[in-house]
Amino acid sequence: MEQYMMLHDYVSNAAAETALFYLISIFAIIMSVGVISDRNVIRSGFILIGVFGAISGLFLLLQAQFLALAQVMIYAVGITLVVVIALMLTNPRSEKDTSYENEPVSKDGSPISPFQRLRLIGPAFVGILSFFTIYTAIRSESWIASGEQVSPDNVRVLGTALTTTYSLPFEFASVLLLAALIGAIMLAKAERPTPVIEIGIDE
Amino acid sequence: MSLQVQKNPIMVNVAYAGILFVCVCGFLGLLSNGKTTDWAMTNFLDLWIFAVAIVGGVVAISMGARSPFIIASGAVGIFVALTATQDTLVRYLSLSALLFAIGMYGMVKSRNAVRVLMSIELMLNAVNINLIAFAKFIDPAEVKGQLFAIFILTVAAAEAAVGLAIVLSVYRNTSTVDMNKFDLLKW
Amino acid sequence: MIPNAPEIGKLAFIIAFWICAIFLPVWAVSWAVGVFLPMIIEGQNPGPELALVADILRTATPILSVLVFIPLNAMFMVLYERRALALFTVRMGPNRVGPDGLLQTAADAVKLLLKEDITPRGADAVIFTLAPIVFFAPSIIGILPILAAITNNHPLFAITNLPTGIFFVLASASIPLVALVMAGWSSNNKYSLVGGLRAAAQAISYEIPLVLSLVTVCLMAGTLDVVKIAQQQDGGFLNWNILGGGALRGLDAAIATALKNQDWAPVIQAFYPYGAASFVAAIVLIFCSHILLGLYLTGACAEINRIPFDLPEAESELVSGYNTEYSGMKFAIFFLAEFTNLFIVSCIATVMFFGGGDNPFPQWFLDQLPLAGIQAGLGSALSFLINDMRLVDPDTFWAAIWVIIKVYSLVFFAILIRGTLPRFRIDQLMDFGWKRLVPLSLIAFLLVVFARVLVVSHGY
Predict the structure, then answer these.
(1) Of residues A64, A75, A161, nearest to B132 (C-beta)
(2) Chain A from 2 to 21: CB within 8 A of any B CB
(3) Under an 8 A CB cutoff, do A46 and C55 touch?
(4) Which of the residues in chain A have pLDDT under 50?
(5) Domains in chain A: how many in total?
(6) Which chain B residue has the Cα nearest residue A121?
(7) In this structure, is the dihedral angle defined by the CA atoms of residues B175, B178, B182 and B186, taken in order, positive or negative?
(8) Is there a single domain that holds both residue C88 and residue C208?
(9) Separation CA A65–CA A152 (nearest Å)
């Protein structure tokens, strides 16, 4: 692999990584705003797949190859299912999602009171507050990065840990999945009319 | 009577912005214990960036800009301004916090149950970024963060399945997925 | 003797012609970009900038060769499929354009590119345009790790070798599903929508046996890396994963020792340490790996919407399914991606089950033949090409030939299936997937887990 060393020097330096990080993260932020503010639920589902793609790109930057691929695999299928369900439950022509109308007036046309306006900006307040809280927590800590590198073969490390130290949580996760599977089937199963029991016809 | 939609009066919004600005300045003043604004500028630069962004957002709303545009540009602006001079780890953590906040906003704001589920998925993914960043920068030897991320992926899958099933059965009973109309238990 | 021998001969000629027409340009491009241009640049004592250019050229070689390969290959596969189907159903097939229909698909491609590109009224234009791209891009990306495996880890293609190889391929193979739903929804057409939804249901159901079968093969091999999986199976068909993932490796070694007139009992003892239990385990492994191959081919057929599972585009019910509204360039991209996916699926089967670029003859059999002399003679005769121009890499060359033969045989098998089986009904499809294939794949997985401990196989 010596022939690639020169390119490797250029690509893996910190500036390129930073540029890639900002590119991907700005893409992810814009797409996630698109998810929560697109009028059409189905289109926002497709945008959500874009967000997850960007996030798995970030995982690749963080050298978590296995998780990036698992992310793509699980969410490409999972979110498509969400979209399909949304398709079944909404009729885009008859039911406009109006929650993103900027409603400056109340229903009868009178100007709204400051209290109602506060209710409108409530979600924004919640969002800003949560970001502010988490960001303050992040900045109040001085993070000491251990200068080591992640081993390129960390799939093996993950597998070993999952089957030795963390085998009990792993089993619990599988039980959880089974429970979720059965529960989902039970919930989503169409209710049949109670069977009418007729006695004495056969036999 | 004429039902003409009344535009937002700009002055009200500017007044809101002014009140907010004064509040933030007062907060800074309290923290700085009466010292000069220089001290506040150096030690609470993040807070200043916040204040400027919020004031800018309110002014933009009053000028009639659409809210997705404001949220997107504000989020990107805050993110870049806050993390430009930080460590790589803090950058990842801030991105995760921002995505979490966007997901939280969407979850509180949207009325469609399916979109609420999507926002929850977004929040779970933001947490995953956190964990994997920790795995790389704090614990690279035995990447525990990635392990926890795997468990979170599992939980997210289970949550999506059960959540969708619940939404389906709610739709079957009420033929709507509007969160505001799920008030059968409301008393 | 064979009544349709002339037709078979014509088909063989078409295959030979088109394989040359595909692989000579690919070869030429990857040699020119990866070897020749960097050789010229570095021959002049370049500065760091020029050396960087040479590096970039080398790095871009896999992508460029794939980009040259995909359109040519799709053109060939369409013709191949139509002529082979005609052979099975005793028809003529396309035979007008060019000598004996040789250029039919080239003409088709030109026609498709010249057609008007229509976006239907009421369609979601952005997603409608994005769908073919999302459908096509994963097939370029997903083929990359396989590329390293089938070229025998040639230095130019080794850069595409990833430690999570087969998982990468599977992940990128699951993306086209999104594109099908996108295309179906955005077309504003009920047939497209039904096609997209069927594609989603079908792909999700059949992805489970597909992934489980490949995971089981990875379990037998002990690694996810496709290059390692391919290299483990070197040395004849007895080592291939289709025969128990190396369960017959002991037999291979024993025959080799017996041919050298040595005692072969200790070899057997070393490879099958538990006596009769080991032999039973070896038989179970062989049986399971055949089941796994069947599961893989079934699941792959469903993933790429080939005929017994082509409900998403069932033309008798849904016009053309998700691509009803597509025309011109976008339709061409869909078409291209479908045939590329067929090729990729066959490639994965070749690498995972049929030994990659390995020749099927065991090493002890080749030792009986006077091949070494021929090889040395060829090597000295072509020394200019091999050593000076570096046009031919002997390792990669034979591997590539074997891969081409194996892959196009599997494609032929897929066409044979298409000509033989009728289409499933949607409830039969779901039944078959969930009630037959998923339990079968789980059972095979469990059996392999227990059996592979008793035999010294690849991943031991």
Answers:
(1) A64
(2) 17-18, 21
(3) no
(4) 1-3, 93-95, 97, 99-105, 203
(5) 1
(6) B109
(7) negative
(8) no
(9) 9
B residues 79-98 closer than 8 Å to A (CB): 79-80, 82, 87-95, 97-98
| B 87-146 residues with CB < 8 A to A | 87-95, 97-106, 108-112, 114-115, 117-119, 121-122, 125, 128-129, 132-133, 135-144, 146
* Residue B172 shares a structural domain with residue B119: yes
In B138-185, which residue ranges form alpha helices assigned H by DSSP? Answer: 144-174
Residues of chain C with pLDDT > 70, as a percent, come to: 99
Q: What is the pLDDT of residue A199?
A: 59
Are B and C neighbours with ≥3 CB pairs closer than 8 A?
Answer: no
Q: What share of chain B is helix, strand, coil (3-state, %, to 5)?
A: 80, 0, 20
CB–CB contact C164 A10 (8 Å): no
pLDDT by residue (tens digit) across C109-122?
A: 888 888 888 888 87
Identify the CATH number of the domain in which residue B157 sits. Answer: 1.10.287.3510
- Chain A residues 58-97 with a CB less than 8 Å from chain B: 58-59, 62-64, 66-67, 70-71, 74-75, 78-79, 81-82, 85-86, 89-90, 97
How far apart CA B10 and CA B59 sit, in angstroms, is 8
Alpha helices in C275-369 (DSSP H): 276-303, 315-318, 328-353, 363-368
Angle between helices A41-61 and A14-37 (to 10 degrees): 160
Give the integer Cα–Cα distance in Å for A130 and C176: 36
Would C456 be classed as within a structural domain? no
- Domain tally for chain C? 2
pLDDT digits (tens, 9 = 90+) for C256-288: 888 888 888 888 888 888 888 888 888 888 888
Helix, coil or strand: residue A107: coil
Q: Tell whether B31 lies on the interface with A, counting CB pairs under 8 A.
A: no
Mean of all residue pLDDT scores within chain C:
84
Say whether C175 and A72 touch across the interface (CB within 8 A).
Answer: yes
**Best CA proximity match to C237, nearest among C363, C86, C335, C412:** C363
B16 and B62: one domain? Answer: yes
pTM for this entry: 0.84
**Is C259 among the domain residues?**
yes
Is residue C460 domain-resident? no
Evaluate whether C301 touches C291 at the Cβ level (below 8 Å).
Answer: no
Structural domain contains residue A141: no
Structural domain range at position C71: 1-114
Q: Is C156 helix (H, G, I), strand (E, B) or coil?
A: coil
pLDDT tens column, B97-126: 999 998 998 888 887 788 888 898 889 999
- Please return the burial class of B27, using the count of CB atoms within 10 Å of its CB with bins 0-12, 13-18 and 19+: middle
Q: ipTM strictly over 0.85?
A: no
Q: Are residues B4 and B42 in the same domain?
A: yes
The DSSP string of A158-179 is HHHHHHTTTHHHHHHHHHHHHH
